[in-house]
Amino acid sequence: MSHPHTIQSVTLPAGVDLDALASILAGGIDDDLAEAAWRLITPARRMLLLAHEHPDPDALGSALGLAHALAPLGKECVVACADPVPANYGFLPGREAVVTRLPDEDFDLVIALDAGELSRYGALYDRYKPFFEAATILNFDHHVTSAGCGRVNIIDPISAATAELLTLFLLNRRVDIPAAAAQCLLAGVITDTRSFEFDATTPRTLMAGAYLVGRGGVPESIIKPMYRMKPLAKARLWGIALDRDLGTVADGRVIWTAIRRSSLAEAGASADSDDGLPSYLMDTDGVAISALFKEQPDGGTKVSLRAAAPYDVAALARRFGGGGHIRAAGFSLAEGVDDAIGRVIPVLETAVAEGGSAPADRE
Ligand SMILES: [Mn+2]
User: Fold this and answer.
1) In this structure, are residues 124 and 50 in contact, taking their beta carbons and an 8 Å threshold?
2) How many domains are there within the chain?
3) How far away, in angstroms, is 161 Cα from ligand 1 center?
4) 217 shares a domain with 135
5) Are 127 and 50 in contact, with CB atoms under 8 Å apart?
6) Contact, 80 vs 105, CB < 8 A?
7) How far is the CA of 84 from the centre of ligand 1 (A)?
8) Which domain holds residue 214?
9) Which residues are within 5 Å of ligand 1 (an ion), measured at CB?
């Protein structure tokens, strides 16, 4: 198997000392906790590494990265996930070996990654419940709400990604991180921070990123397919939407566009080609609330809302029978796109007017 984007050795700039970086990162995790986890790994011959359902690159990159780091120690690792690896995750070496069903139940240890509740491992957990209830589980996660589902739980909300936490753990235990492992862990760190953009990014996150790049991880190979590449038909569809259906009110603080069935057909685009368009609208100067009106096959309209602080689009969506998060919510209406726009936009305009005269802070 070849990894065209994964280089095997890196020429470091003068003065960059990876060993010094490694010792700083190794100090980022509690020694006793790392030792307790290692005591589970040491005697294990064959391990099941679990990524949560609907996997993101942090879940899969953590599982595959750990497998690449443990394999040289003679550990046989099976990486499993309830759902298949998404097609655009070609930057994860070893993804071909990820299974959606267990080949058998002959495992000495289960390592559950990026979720602290067994139910989050989805159909895999449901299908093999008796096995998981009896198994020895080691759990790594970084979600603040994580309950921990293992005999040993290493849960660190300061880590921006489970992959950051695993980097600390492996370096604390003096386990070598080969290039394939570095690439997988870097994918987790980069995508959980959206290229070090989100405020979960700490100086330590960047140090872990620096270490992983130093060991052979390639940022571009991850960032380009995750955030930039799109089918030509999607570019055409966005062109149509932005040309014909873009509207604003309230001095540009409310912005919207529409995806019509006819536009999808004209562009030759798939129905999910609006993915990312609401955020793209939000990235327009001065916008407080964005809305995307998407015509449904039954003639109704699905409305996606996004907001900048302090606006609460979940509350607005609830008024139309929907819901969601404070800054990202949605609902469905029975009427067509133009009637939906006519009914919803005045409500958004009022919300922005009531939200105060100062432009919203961007998050
Ligand atoms: Mn994560």
Assistant:
1) yes
2) 2
3) 4
4) yes
5) no
6) no
7) 18
8) 18-228
9) 58, 114, 161-162, 192
